[in-house]
Design goal:
The complex is a heterodimer of chains A (94) and B (363). Chain A is built from three helices and five strands, in the order ββββαααβ. With 94 residues, chain A is α+β, with helices and mostly antiparallel strands. A three-stranded antiparallel beta sheet of chain A has the order 2-3-4, covered by helices on one side. A two-stranded antiparallel sheet of chain A has the order 1-5. The mean pLDDT of chain A is 91. By secondary structure, chain B is α/β, with parallel strands linked by helices. In chain B, helix 1 links the parallel strand 1 and strand 2. In chain B, helix 1 runs parallel beside helix 2. Classes of the chains: A alpha+beta (94), B alpha/beta (363). The structure holds iron/sulfur cluster (SF4) (2 copies).
Amino acid sequence: MTIEPARRYQLADKVKLVFDSNRKAPMLLYPERGLSLNEVAAAIARACGQPVTVAEIARILRERFPEASPQTIEQDVIAFLQELERRGLLQSVG
Amino acid sequence: MPDLPYTLIAELTYRCPLRCPYCSNPTDARDHGPELSTSEWQTILTQARELGVLQLHLTGGEPLARKDLEALVRHARSLDLYVNLVTSGVPLSKERLAELARAGLDNVQVSIQSIDRARSRAIAGVDVFDDKRQVLEWVKALGLPLTLNVVLHRDNLDEVEALIAYAEQVGADRLELANTQYLGWALVNREALLPARAPLIAAHTLASKAAQWLAGRMEVLFVMPDYHTRHPRACMDGWARRFLHIAPDGTALPCHAARSLPLTFLRAPEHSLAEIWHRSPAFEAFRGQAWMKPPCRDCERREQDFGGCRCQAFALTGDPAATDPACSLSPHRKRVTDARAQAGEQRPRRYLYRGTRGPGAPG
Ligand code: SF4
Ligand code: SF4
């Protein structure tokens, strides 16, 4: 699956986003493992709590991180969604 | 300081109505102490969360055999643990599953033996094919994420394509096609279970293709048996690094099979999980690299696979610090290649079912 601009994506049903006080980091939990996230990744994951397009996620991130370039943001979003997809943590919802 | 444990595997009971010949429970399970009480398990869950654990697998035996499963799920949920129920699905009612879902399950993993009723019965030792099918429907009807798990071996390896279709049909979110690990009961039954190379490769190829075309809809995972790979698997991501396993009687282990090793393991909650994780000699035993012998000691892969599985090394060589014979560099590799050569031969094989009279397992 390649990440397409027209499609909407959402975290897979089994995935849960939590803040871990022991590791002092946001984590994505799922049955097989856990993924420790940085701030940007956590913001993307949060946005994927409901069906969203790449552009919509990028808009949310631009508000959160106004100093970052829009181009970098979009690249980060796509790269992270691909990472999620590779681990089976992302569903495509049309 | 060791890493923090991330996953707690709570083996609530060794009881199970099934009798799979590859069961990962110890072959001498009957000789172990009585099961922990509800409050003892709750203490363990609380301590685990404090220690760093975020994820809980409730397993067994068959965890449904515990009447307090709902209470334990509720407690885990109150601690904000990610709760995965690992079950054969038997015995279960729709009402009980709904109650467990309300209590806070995050994922359900159901194992099936085969997509064929007669085969399923021959493998599980009991006729539960229809019960399982029913359970799969309930899991989806309740909106729970479903992992379908199939332990592969020579008598169901030819079903991979059909299993993928079946998993899609029942709406699984993830399909795990995991070849048998030859420890415990599976080692006893190795001759009957270990597949030859050709069907294995064919199955692997099918599964890899399916994984690609199903990406984004259903995950497909295929795990090769380490008897047929060049290097061992990174067992448990390294000894006592991420996983903490508690046996039904409270014995704390780095993995389910570790009880077979000549080490002294402490019991929880009699001993605190912090003490066990951070200060017990058995958990220290194979952390890091100081314990390694050649060829592992000087090998560039030692940080990737940690020298393989300690339990397999001990079972096949008698030395728990030896290189896992699943590694092509192991001086004991012949133990594995001989078994593999036999797997190509066609002759009648019978299972020794779990729980029937066998090595170390009276009655
Ligand atoms: S492997 Fe089979 S016999 Fe063993 S616990 Fe699982 S379902 Fe029961
Ligand atoms: S020699 Fe040891 S470290 Fe190297 S690949 Fe084999 S098992 Fe792994």
